[in-house]
Automatic annotation (TrEMBL):
GO terms for biological process: maturation of SSU-rRNA. It holds the Pfam family PIN_6. GO terms for cellular component: cytoplasm; preribosome, small subunit precursor. SUPFAM superfamilies: PIN domain-like. The lineage of its organism: Archaea, Nitrososphaerota. It comes from Candidatus Nitrosopelagicus brevis. The keyword Hydrolase applies. Residues 5-91 form the Ribonuclease PIN domain. The keyword Metal-binding applies. One of its GO terms (molecular function) is RNA endonuclease activity. This is Endoribonuclease Nob1.
């Protein structure tokens, strides 16, 4: 049976606690969610029954994810935890369970299968750009227009999936 990769949201939604599937997550996501059901020992039980494995991806795959997040324009909004689960899904050729748009956008760029939790999922992927609504210039990493000082807006240049 193939494992599915879970982000923190999947744990908060209770997915691994109501399923007999096998799951994986990374150590930094596990640290983030280990307070969930701590009193009942639910996470420990999932690990003892091999329904939850904690694994960390290679630095090579994390670098691939970082590069992809730069290409999609998600590098400023994606967390280390997010990068780690995308890299783990890439490394193990597993499905990724998430509702996070940036995670899904980067994962789709890397041809990783994703499934939504509580949403319909995203229908379009693309590249985020930052632009100044006053002077109309586009920027890649700035949060403020270096020309006029206006706060930059973001928009997604879409491509259908």
């Amino acid at each position: 049976m193939d494992s599915k990769i879970l982000d923190a949201t999947a744990f908060y939604a209770g997915i691994p606690f109501v399923s007999n599937d096998s799951f994986m997550t990374t150590s930094i996501v596990y640290e983030e969610i280990q307070h969930i059901k701590a009193k009942q020992g639910a996470l420990e039980m999932l690990q003892q029954t091999n329904r939850l494995q904690i694994r960390d991806p290679s630095e090579k795959n994390i670098a691939i994810v970082k590069d992809a997040s730069i290409k999609t324009g998600d590098s400023t909004t994606i967390s280390k935890q997010d990068m780690s689960i995308i890299a783990l899904a890439l490394e193990n050729d597993c499905e990724l369970i998430t509702d996070d748009f940036a995670v899904t956008n980067v994962a789709k760029q890397l041809k990783i299968k994703t499934s939504p939790l509580m949403t319909k999922g995203i229908k379009t992927v693309g590249k985020w750009i930052s632009y100044c609504s006053i002077c109309g210039k586009e920027f890649s990493k700035e949060k403020e227009c270096p020309i006029c000082g206006n706060k930059l807006n973001r928009k997604l240049i879409k491509k259908s999936i």
